[in-house]
Amino acid sequence: MTFYVTTPIYYANSLPHLGHLYTMIVADTIARHKRQQGIETFFLTGTDEHGINIERAAARAGRTPKEQADYVVNYFKKMTAEFGLDTDHGGYDMFMRTSEPFHYEGVSELWRRAAKAKTPKGNDAIYKGRYEGWFCAPCAAYKTEDEYAKPAQAGDPPTCLIHETPLDRIAEESYFFRLSDYAEALLALYESRPDFVQPESRNNEVTAFVRGGLQDLSVSRLKSSVSWGVPVPDDPDHTMYVWFEALTNYITAIGFGNEERERAVGFKKFWPALHLVGKDILRFHAVYWPAFLMAAGVEQPRAVVAHGMWLDPNGRKMSKTLGNTVELDVLNRYFPIDAIRYFCLREMVFGQDGRFGYEALIDRTNSDLASGLGNLSSRTLTMISRYTDGRVPSGVISEDKLLLAKRTGVDTDETTISGFIEHARDQFLQHLEAFAFSKALEVAWSVVARVDKMISDAKPWELAKDENQKQTLSAVLYRAAETLRWLCVLLYPVMPTATQEIWMQLGFGSSPGSLDPAKLKWGELAEGTSIGEVKPLFPRIDKAKTMAEISGKEQEAGAAGRSDRLSSDVQSPTSDVQSQPASGTAGASPAMSAAREDGSGRQATEADAVPGAEGITSFIDITDFTKVDLRVGEVLTAERIPKADKLLLLTVDIGEEKPRQILAGIAQYYEPEQLLRRKIAVVANLKPRKLRGYESQGMLLAASVGDEGKPVIATFTEEVPNGARLK
Ligand code: MSP
């Protein structure tokens, strides 16, 4: 069995941006998943190098068209390498260039076949005529009246609705493809193969377009007007229409019309392809291309799958004129590649448009990756290294220890968790195969949350203190490690680098990319496996600092016209991503703690495995914060409460008529006397509640530190009056 996936070939007149990167990420994810399944896969990308637009871009830059193409190709190849999408990184198999001589041969072969063919209605599929109309060079498409804007001044050309640039008037002899004869055949194709155009909404769109009637298509230009292109066979005065020729790259790349390519890759072996495209070029792929193939008697593609467009955070289309494009060198400099891949696939509902904002990217990286997957991995591995000697423990709880284990609240039935994870795997794969990447990732993150909770509930750091609970502890750690192994295999296509890293930290050789997720079996993680060195995976990104740097960069780039420069100044990845300090943050649950490094190079270890060091996972407005009334208080009295070994009963003066009575769970760490006359911070507007029969009229603030969440009371080093507000 083989599988063939393609991206569009990118115009060689301008440098790539997020939109181009996205299609490649999606194709790369699909290809890696197929390879995991043991299917021989071919992933094709490349550049579309012919046509008037490239000729003009070259002329503007003082280059020949081929030099212009070489220049852009260089940049593309550098970009794909930097983003881990090239062959060396397990990405595409071939970078196609339409200026390759074998492409000329293959295209000529397709043209000849179509030129000999009759349409389903018995007419010549290609005929010579005269074209008169408007052409948009950047779209490389002829425009009908509803596709252009009338000029402001009579006599001026109309403008393209997409590019807002003037159209070219064309009145010349041209070859035509008799598309109008193919409507029924195309509709029959869509009907018989509902998966031919995906997602379904796009299928409906294409069907409606074809039902609306098709016009014949001009498929050549006079060589005297467009010389940079493939000559029409047997008529050197004509150059092929760039889309006719560009679409054909999908078959010429792998050997159609060229023996050498056939031997090197194999049209017979790999065709038909799954074409991944942006919705803006769906019509070319789902209407024109199938009709050309029908005429030439070539099998139809496996499917045409269209994704939506990336918009800016305000929902505007990205464009260089608006200055809202996402620059790849900025992305590459500030974000780990896997975070970008994850974000793109998680954030965009496949098929629909999505908004791209750096803030959202930072938030997702910090919450889902640093605090989510990264933390799950580091806390699990840290605990294995600490509590079970760096070896994967046994997951079995023997009969005689079952009762003991149950008492801790740990589910002694392993199939509860394994069943959950197997079901999640099946759902994940279903979504992945339907290109519902964001749904698939939601499912994977439900696994992360579930296992995080399992750890937090079981409190391995408590179990470790009790020799009798050794097996319970081992079972919890085994389950967490086995889940991590599964997550590596599932998530490999989306995050090849991070999953490989976790894989190595788990102590495995080879790659999660060589295992078929459908064949995973719970319990195949071998007891006794020595784990590798535990390293942080996704350092937290300092949002304020990074945002400030990015906007500085963007202004700089704007001033220097960066978007038109070659990538010689593309920075190395993630070198200066800032991390949060590791200690001293108070509060939330261990499930929220993040893998991180502090300035001293400390690696994510115990503190991340236990409560007390967590990352901020969501942000509030200042108005949310001002709802909290924080006051300076002075402890007037402090005493223990009978039969409540954790609570102290305090009276605190917060500048009101009467002191407040506040209960604090700090009795194991503070002697009452230590607190007398201490200035503390109090949440004054917390709803009063009763604890052990005493009303608590507020809460004091304390850091939660270390393994057990030891409280350290927040205090003031300078004189402050009671009742002063903290803000
Ligand atoms: N050369 C043609 C394709 C020929 S395929 C036989 C072309 N090139 S392109 O460089 O303009 O665009 C290539 C792909 O990038 C298209 O699928 C397009 O949808 C995608 N994107 C360009 N901008 C995009 C966004 N803002 N968002 C998502 N994808 C976008 O068209």
Describe this structure in words.
The chain is of the alpha+beta class and 727 residues long. A hairpin with a 2-residue loop joins strand 22 and strand 23 (694-696). The chain starts with a strand and ends with a strand. It binds 5'-O-[(L-methionyl)-sulphamoyl]adenosine. 5'-O-[(L-methionyl)-sulphamoyl]adenosine (MSP) binds next to strand 1, helix 1, helix 7 and strand 14.
The gist of it:
The chain is of the alpha+beta class and 727 residues long. It has 24 helices and 27 strands.
Descriptors:
alpha+beta, 727 residues, binds 5'-O-[(L-methionyl)-sulphamoyl]adenosine
- Approximate strand percentage: 15-25%
Main sheet?
Answer: 6 strands, parallel
Count of helical regions: 24
Strand order of the largest sheet: 3-2-1-14-15-9
Query: How large, in whole angstroms, is the Cα Rg?
Result: 32 Å
Low-confidence stretches: 561-617
Strand and helix layout:
Elements: E1 2-11, H1 18-36, E2 40-48, H2 52-61, H3 65-82, E3 94-97, H4 101-116, E4 126-136, E5 141-143, E6 148-149, E7 159-160, E8 168-177, H5 183-192, E9 197-198, H6 200-211, E10 217-218, E11 220-222, E12 231-232, E13 235-240, H7 242-247, H8 249-252, H9 259-264, H10 267-270, E14 274-278, H11 282-296, E15 303-307, E16 310-311, H12 328-334, H13 337-347, E17 354-355, H14 358-387, H15 399-407, H16 414-433, H17 437-458, H18 460-463, H19 470-491, H20 496-505, H21 543-560, H22 606-609, H23 622-626, E18 630-641, E19 644-653, E20 660-664, H24 672-675, E21 679-683, E22 689-691, E23 694-696, E24 699-700, E25 702-705, E26 710-713, E27 725-726
Helix pairs in contact: 2-3, 4-11, 5-6, 13-14, 13-17, 14-17, 14-19, 16-17, 16-19, 17-19, 19-20
The protein binds 5'-O-[(L-methionyl)-sulphamoyl]adenosine.
5'-O-[(L-methionyl)-sulphamoyl]adenosine (MSP) binds at residues 8-11, 19-20, 22-23, 48, 246-247, 277-278, 280-281, 309-310, 318.
